[in-house]
Amino acid sequence: MRLYTAVVNPAAGRGAGGRxxxxxxxxxxxxxxxxxxxxxxxxxxxxxxxxxxxxxxxLAVGGDGHAGVVAGAVADTGGLLGIVGVGRxxxxxxxxxxxxxxxxxAAVVEKGHERAVDVIEAAGRTVLGSVYAGVDSVASEIVAAxxxxxxxxxxxxxxxxxxxxxxxxGFRLTLDGxxxxxxGWSVVVANSGWYGAGMHIVPSAEVxxxxxxxxxxxxxxxxxxxxxxRHVYDGSHVGRDDVEVRRARTVTLTADRPLPxxxxxxxxxxxxxxVTVRPAALRVLA
Length: 286
Known about the structure:
CATH class of the largest domain: Mainly Beta
Strand content: 35-45%
Shape: globular
Number of domains: 2
Helix content: 25-40%
Distance between the termini: 19 Å
Order of helices and strands: EHEHEHEHHEEEHHEEEHEEEEE
Number of strands: 15
Structural class: alpha+beta
CATH architecture of the largest domain: Sandwich
Largest sheet: 15 strands, mixed
Radius of gyration: 18 Å
């Protein structure tokens, strides 16, 4: 019988993590699941590493940021990861086509196939989805402040507010040694194509191609971008003249002024960061 350790972020989904973990205990074979709660990211990583070293399958029960922390520990120990998304976004689970209900997630955990996927390394952290700076990171800060906006609408609210209050920056990127300098609204360095609870920001991104897809939104009309925001959900925004995507294995990002750099909804760095892909570094159930 496969043994599992569910590493829970108690704050995920407004406290739903513990409830979902309890439901997993019932849904999976009796005696196969132990539940542990991470006090913070460092503690969650420690718990995941110990479980993986002990030969247990590690379940990340939380949002995208928590899944990245747990995934880093699992990848470093050569373990096996299951993802049970209970955050507001759950965008890496969306990229993998994972179910969002507990019964469906339990079925994947118990009967799913192993898949090797890429991960991002940036600023000493493992990231599953994407690293971004500009209007995207400003929006991420707005979401983190927990405005009184219901459910997934908080991401739309944050995107609109960020576009209204931000201004373009001068970005200087180095992609595998090749420089790319533009004035723009945002840069997204993506392993997974989704962010913001269902925005298909980089549709070309694949988690098993050994490459990072780098999207630049160039300096253009604020009002035109606001009008085009709806196109981000189906990925059709990449056809715009002010959007360009390139690919690389290592990307260095700097800006002409201090900008927050975020990754999967969490603060990562400020102003400058180097982002590298680790091909097929993580074994995950899907």
